[in-house]
Amino acid sequence: MTLYALDAIDDALDAARAFLWPFDLGRWARLALVMFFVGGAGGTPPFQFGGGTPSGTGSQTPDVSGIPGTIPSPGGTELAVIAAIFGIVLVLGLAFLFVGSVMEFVFVESLRREAVTIRRYWGERWRQGARLFGFRIVLGALTIGIVGALLAAILWPVLVGEGALSIGLLFLAIPVFVVVSVISGLVGGFTTMFVVPVMVAEDRALLSAWRRFWPTLTGQWKQYAAYAVLSFVLQLVAGILASVVTVLAAVGVAVPIGLFGLVGVGLLSVSELAGWGLIGLAVALFVVAVIVIGLVVAVPIQTYLRYYALLVLGDTEAAFDLIPERRAAVRE
């Protein structure tokens, strides 16, 4: 049996090379902007769970607010500031996730038409991007809910002070965490790599596209199992390569920027304001340079990985093929 995931490894490289070369600064710059939302994000934002220490009923907590050295409890103003900061961070995170969801369609359309036009593709696909955004919110909430409920069940005796942490139960829960994480990752990854192209190919909503893709997935599950394994390996290798290239490039830009910062250090004896200003500017320039380098490095890597998925998808179902001309060209 021919494994499409194996055949597509070299073909995706040829397709990415043809799309990105000869070098075009405008195309790479627009793709780098797309990568900021699609390939530049390392994953979902971390969620932290915290619980207060329960107090026994009938007991009276001593008033220590006046004792020197104790930390006062936050008042209404402090709580309002904390809530405002949390709300702003949450809104910014959701906005970033929404833009990233729409940019998935911008990226696919760019590869499909072999032209990168962010404004046009955004206008055509933002509604489908909104559906992907909602799906990602629900999937993330379900994953966090399952993991959180399991952790709560394990830690409940400790939290209520009625027992100790069960190490055996904790070890039994580890496989469940792994299974939930793998299933969530596969659903999210397959949605991005395969269902989004189906939505583009047949102008469908997300759930409709999943129903359309499901018979292909289950009917050729061996092909997609091979893709999942090989894609994991390719992403691992690509991640290592990207890290090495980014670090080397960052070291290269650190030298001139570092010299600029040393000028600021020398100015500290003359003017602290000017010296610290130059040092801060040097640090800001270095951070921006590293981000730009990372995005530029991500362009060929993410282009290759997305072409790889599109080739596998088209091989398993011709109706979903978004790149028939490019496929034919690289396989002549």
Automatic annotation (TrEMBL):
<keyword id="KW-0614">Plasmid</keyword>
<dbReference type="Pfam" id="PF24400">
    <property type="entry name" value="DUF7544"/>
</dbReference>
<keyword id="KW-0812">Transmembrane</keyword>
<protein>
    <recommendedName>
        <fullName>Glycerophosphoryl diester phosphodiesterase membrane domain-containing protein</fullName>
    </recommendedName>
</protein>
<keyword id="KW-0472">Membrane</keyword>
<feature type="transmembrane region" description="Helical">
    <location>
        <begin position="221"/>
        <end position="241"/>
    </location>
</feature>
<dbReference type="InterPro" id="IPR055966">
    <property type="entry name" value="DUF7544"/>
</dbReference>
<keyword id="KW-1133">Transmembrane helix</keyword>
<feature type="transmembrane region" description="Helical">
    <location>
        <begin position="275"/>
        <end position="299"/>
    </location>
</feature>
<feature type="transmembrane region" description="Helical">
    <location>
        <begin position="129"/>
        <end position="155"/>
    </location>
</feature>
<feature type="transmembrane region" description="Helical">
    <location>
        <begin position="247"/>
        <end position="268"/>
    </location>
</feature>
<feature type="transmembrane region" description="Helical">
    <location>
        <begin position="79"/>
        <end position="108"/>
    </location>
</feature>
<feature type="transmembrane region" description="Helical">
    <location>
        <begin position="167"/>
        <end position="200"/>
    </location>
</feature>
